[in-house]
Design a protein that fits this description.
Elements (H helix, E strand, L loop, with lengths): L9 E4 L3 H10 L5 E4 L18 E2 L6 H11 L5 H21 L7 E4 L9 E4 L4 H14 L4 E4 L3 E8 L2 E8 L5 E5 L2 E4 L20 H8 L4 E2 L4 E8 L11 H5 L3 E3 L19 H15 L6 E4 L5 H7 L1 H8 L10 E10 L2 E3 L11 E3 L4 E2 L11 H19 L22 H17 L6 H14 L9 H22 L17 H4 L3 E3 L6 E2 L1
Parallel strand pairs: 1-2, 1-10, 2-6, 10-17, 16-18
Antiparallel strand pairs: 3-5, 4-5, 7-8, 8-9, 11-16, 11-19, 12-15, 13-14, 14-15, 19-20
Helix pairs in contact: 1-4, 1-10, 2-3, 3-10, 5-13, 11-12, 11-13, 12-13
Bound molecules: flavin-adenine dinucleotide.
Length: 519
């Protein structure tokens, strides 16, 4: 697109599944500007998310409902789960129709914590890519939708408690304000809060921080899902090794090459996420290795079947000289999914008038205290569409005029001091607010984060905005985790290892400058 407009009807921040699905819904009601901080993938590049799986539109949703509730550990919002599953068939059917000409082959397989095969695969293991491709093509075919890549949102603008626009930095770092009637946040996850993550480098928790600064409540931030098996090799990205590998029979072995999952759960390698993660963390701790990890082992499986079922994983690891049919794979857990986020109702509405959120950045309570694998993409589709519909139907005031681009300042050279500060936040979160937490550790994290605040004031460059967003979101997360004095789902405290249903069978919620409440 040629330059950014000074005003539009709707701004959607994020061009992932949730943002694009919402934009498609909104296109019938006015001009939609979709912002993305980086490029929109061109599908020629193999990216980690292309390994993603998808859910079936099975007619009997009761088993899927039960699996979701079990994963959520008592905290799922039942109405949200029912809505997710009831609206899924329609969302999936329309998606398949939009991507019909792609000749996608769809098959169903079993994924961890699902009691029956309901995960849709396309052409080997690239279903995520096919889904995204269908959404991109559909949104690009609608004339009211414009997509602005490399446009970084720095603030949600409000007047008298109501959203009136967004502030952005364009590709060249030029600040501009875009006026609009309503904003949808669809900024994805927060994985970069942690030293080890499967998330892309863009997952710097911008959405949570933007919303919180605009006065929105955030909820359930303490529930961060760690993926058990990310590739662990020096100077290699934490490549995501799908749950499917264990679901199809891969073993976990410790440093001494012993299988260990049987000691922790009767389902062994197929146990729920959080249990597997903690079992691995424990095995790493007791190994006393200086640089501990465990192994994922497929060598007992038929080589041809492994190559056929996991062609992309096979090829990707071959590039690092690991033949998964013959070699064990070094792995470690990594931050994977932010269960909490900006608190919304089931139409994506936040407590700030004109501000909506959908997808991973939002907290509807649909995942409870832990997400069932594969429900995230479905969440983006279903709640993205719902938020789009709600925005379309809301009472709108005419957008006021936005500002012309202001004097440019550069995106800035790499600032070593800033990178060090980001590294400190990531280490603090990994060590003190990570897989296994304690009161003392989290108190230390909150204090250290509070002390850092002056160094992150008045950001000007994109990277400094990202650092400030990581910082604010870390603080909200650490305070929420400290306040939940029990263990539940993805939140595990060594000092309070059990549930406390009486006090904590509730959702945490916090605003900037406020204290955590349980509601
Ligand atoms: C490796 C990996 C594998 C996964 N596999 C599965 C799976 O098999 N099944 C499943 O259901 N889920 C899976 N997930 C989770 C799922 O992919 C995500 O939860 C989902 O894609 C999130 O979608 P979203 O639309 O909310 O955000 P995203 O797809 O993350 O999109 C976020 C968008 O927001 C933009 N953005 C962010 N900040 C700003 C800003 N400040 N200004 C402008 N734009 C901004 C980004 O550029 C991007 O366009 C996986 C996740 C990962 C990391």
């Amino acid at each position: 697109m040629k330059g950014l407009p000074a005003e539009t009807d709707f701004v959607v921040i994020g061009a992932g599944v949730a943002g694009l699905r919402a934009a498609i819904e909104l296109a019938a009601a006015g001009r939609v500007l979709v912002l993305a901080k980086k490029e929109i993938p061109n599908f020629k590049v193999a990216d980690a998310k292309s390994e993603a799986a998808w859910l079936s539109d099975e007619e009997d949703v009761s088993l899927h409902l039960q699996d979701t509730l079990d994963s959520g550990d008592g905290l799922c919002n039942l109405a949200a789960v029912k809505m997710l599953l009831e609206e899924a068939p329609e969302r999936i059917d329309e998606l398949i129709a939009w991507g019909k000409h792609h000749e996608t082959k769809l098959t169903f397989g079993l994924e961890n914590a699902h009691s029956k095969g309901r995960v849709l695969h396309a052409q080997g293991d690239s279903a995520g890519k096919e889904i995204f491709k269908a959404l991109c093509e559909k949104s690009q075919s609608l004339k009211h939708i414009s997509i602005a890549p490399f446009t970084f949102t720095t603030a949600i603008v409000t007047e008298d408690g109501r959203v009136t626009g967004v502030s952005v930095l364009d590709e060249k770092g030029v600040p501009q304000e875009i006026a609009c009637s309503a904003v949808l946040l669809a900024t994805g996850g927060c994985g970069q809060l942690y030293r080890n993550t499967t998330n892309p480098e863009t997952a710097t928790a911008d959405g949570v921080a933007l919303a919180a600064r605009a006065g929105a409540e955030v909820s359930d931030m303490e529930f961060v899902q760690f993926h058990p098996t990310a590739l662990y090799m020096k100077k290699v990205p934490r490549f995501f090794l799908s749950e499917d590998l264990r679901a199809e029979g891969a073993y976990l072995r410790n440093f001494e090459l012993d299988r260990f999952m049987g000691k922790y759960h009767p389902l062994g390698e197929r146990a729920p996420h959080d249990l597997v993660v903690r079992a691995i963390a424990h095995e790493m701790e007791v190994s006393r290795a200086k640089d501990p990890f465990v192994y994922l082992d497929l060598t007992h499986m038929r080589a041809s079947a492994v190559q056929k079922r996991f062609p992309r994983i096979y090829a990707a690891l071959m590039a690092h000289n690991i033949d998964i049919t013959e070699d064990v794979i070094p792995v470690r857990p990594a931050a994977h999914h932010c269960v909490g986020g900006v608190r919304t109702d089931l139409d994506g509405k936040t407590n700030v008038a004109g501000l909506y959120a959908a997808g991973e950045v939002a907290a509807t309570g649909v995942h409870g205290a832990n997400r069932l694998p594969s429900n995230a993409l479905l969440e983006g589709l279903v709640f993205g569409a719902r938020a789009g519909r709600a925005m379309r139907e809301m009472d709108r005031t005419a957008p006021r005029t936005g500002s012309a681009p202001q004097a440019a300042y550069s995106n800035g050279p790499v600032d070593a001091g800033l990178e060090e500060l980001i590294g400190q936040i990531q280490d603090l979160m990994w060590n003190e607010v990570g897989i296994v937490r304690t009161r003392m550790g989290m108190q230390k994290a909150v204090k250290a984060l509070e002390d850092m605040a002056p160094k992150l004031a008045q950001p000007k460059t994109r990277r400094k905005h990202e650092a400030a967003n990581l910082h604010l979101t870390s603080l909200l997360l650490a305070k929420s985790a400290l306040a939940r004095e029990e263990s539940r789902g993805a939140h595990y405290r060594m000092d309070c290892p059990d549930h406390d249903d009486k006090k904590f069978l509730k959702h945490s919620t916090i605003k900037v400058g406020g204290t955590v409440r349980f509601v």
